[in-house]
């Protein structure tokens, strides 16, 4: 089942994001094919990273929650909110 993880950063947390970005990217790279898509959410002007959007193929919600908890960004306290929702891919058709 696909899950969408929508994570918003704490205010004024760019230094935390930058310090933990290499570990976060390495964590994503280790997910293999279960990682459908991932990237930063951007400020309205497109200049600052303000969160993360991740689409992950997991067996169940518990697995998605474990992934979210294991993210180095989460361990560093970067996120103000983490929202996990089941997601259905419609387009593009596979």
Oligomer class = single chain
Radius of gyration: 13 Å
CATH class: Alpha Beta
Number of domains: 1
Arrangement of strands in the largest sheet: 2-3-1-4
Uncertain spans = none
CATH homology superfamily name: Dimeric alpha+beta barrel
Helix residue percentage: 25-40%
What is the name of the CATH architecture?
A: 2-Layer Sandwich
Helical region count?
3
Approximate shape: globular
Structural classification? alpha+beta
Largest sheet, strands/sense/barrel: 4 strands, antiparallel
- The succession of helices and strands, N to C, reads EHEEHHE
Task: Describe the structure concisely for a colleague.
32% of the residues lie in helices and 36% in strands.
């Amino acid at each position: 089942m696909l899950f969408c993880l929508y994570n918003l950063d704490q205010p004024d947390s760019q230094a935390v994001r930058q310090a933990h970005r290499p570990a976060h990217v390495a964590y994503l790279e280790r997910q293999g094919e279960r990682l459908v898509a991932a990237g930063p959410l951007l400020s309205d002007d497109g200049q600052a990273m303000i969160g993360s959007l991740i689409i992950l193929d997991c067996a169940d919600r518990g697995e998605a929650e474990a992934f979210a908890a294991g993210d180095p960004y989460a361990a560093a306290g970067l996120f103000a909110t983490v929202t996990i929702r089941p997601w259905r891919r419609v387009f593009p058709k596979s």
